[in-house]
């Protein structure tokens, strides 16, 4: 084979290789374009023509999916951004310039626009540098995300109000009333559940410790049902108060309550029991002088 024939075969092989590479590149480009067009976010590619001029950004590609865009960006490919949006403040171009110079993604402002037939939408803009002079502007619709966050914030505020009201109600439902410097009264009204029992115990012990009271009168006249749980709370309160140097006087035990306590086998030896509040106050008042 002559040299010319050999050179021709080598050239044809190189051409075939280049054509194969070109075909592969074209397929890759088509895949990329289809992917970008189907992304649920807006993608704009900007090319900086003058590194010293932040406003020299030209739109070279868009997938046309910019949420809230007042114009169709696909009609403006090839134009400078400053010509497409004459009112863009210089600060925005400065942030674009910073993203390109630093190579770091920059989160931009949020856009709120009323879209016809859709309503108000909110978009988050981010600038992502791809090369030293190519900038990708990502526009993501965050309307639903903002709505979820707002709903969560509202729920937290409502829960805080509910918690505050519950705490206020607990304070009202378990008041500790000083009648002398050594005697306090806690009238219990309504059902005593686990949460209220804990609140009662905290209020009682804090009051005994803070006021250095000698007697705490627990009046259960207003408690409709006294079961094992309530009895256990009363005994626990008496034992805790005794550790602080005080005594619990239990008043307001109705006949049916007395029968219930006897039937449950409850031992009330740790408590001083009086029939009503008046007799309990009288006992505490007299005993404080002894």
From TrEMBL:
Taxonomy, superkingdom: Bacteria
Domain STAS residues, every copy: 173-284
One Pfam family linked to the record: STAS
Signal peptide: none
Keywords: Coiled coil, Phosphoprotein
Residue ranges that the Swiss-Prot or TrEMBL entry lists as coiled coil: 1-35
CDD domains named in the record: STAS_RsbR_RsbS_like
Entry-linked InterPro entries: Bact_StressResp_Reg (IPR051932), STAS_dom (IPR002645), STAS_dom_sf (IPR036513)
Keyword Transcription regulation: no
Descriptive protein name: Anti-sigma-factor antagonist
Organism field: Herpetosiphon aurantiacus (strain ATCC 23779 / DSM 785 / 114-95)
């Amino acid at each position: 084979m002559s040299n010319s024939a050999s050179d021709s075969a080598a050239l044809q092989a190189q051409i075939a290789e280049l054509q194969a590479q070109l075909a592969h590149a074209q397929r890759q480009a088509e895949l990329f374009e289809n992917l970008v067009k189907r992304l649920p976010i807006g993608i704009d590619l900007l090319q900086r023509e003058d590194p010293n001029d932040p406003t020299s950004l030209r739109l070279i590609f868009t997938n046309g999916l910019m949420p809230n865009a007042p114009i169709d960006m696909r009609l403006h490919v090839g134009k400078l951004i400053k010509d497409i949006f004459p009112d863009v403040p210089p600060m925005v171009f400065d942030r674009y310039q910073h993203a390109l110079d630093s190579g770091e993604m920059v989160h931009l402002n949020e856009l709120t626009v009323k879209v016809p037939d859709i309503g108000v939408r909110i978009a988050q803009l981010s600038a992502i540098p791809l090369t030293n002079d190519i900038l990708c502007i990502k526009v993501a619709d965050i309307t639903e995300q903002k709505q979820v966050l707002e709903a969560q914030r509202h729920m937290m505020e409502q829960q805080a109000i509910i918690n505050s009201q519950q705490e206020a109600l607990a304070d009202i439902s378990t008041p500790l009333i000083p009648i002398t410097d050594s005697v306090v009264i806690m009238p219990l009204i309504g059902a005593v559940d686990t949460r209220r029992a804990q609140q009662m115990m905290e209020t009682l012990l804090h009051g005994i410790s803070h006021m250095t009271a000698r007697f705490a009168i627990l009046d259960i006249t207003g408690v409709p049902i006294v079961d094992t749980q309530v009895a256990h709370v009363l005994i626990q309160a008496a034992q805790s108060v005794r550790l602080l140097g005080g005594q619990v006087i239990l008043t307001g035990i109705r006949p049916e309550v007395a029968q219930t306590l006897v039937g449950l086998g409850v031992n009330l030896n740790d408590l001083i029991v009086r029939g009503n509040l008046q007799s309990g106050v009288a006992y505490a008042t007299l005993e404080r002088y002894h």
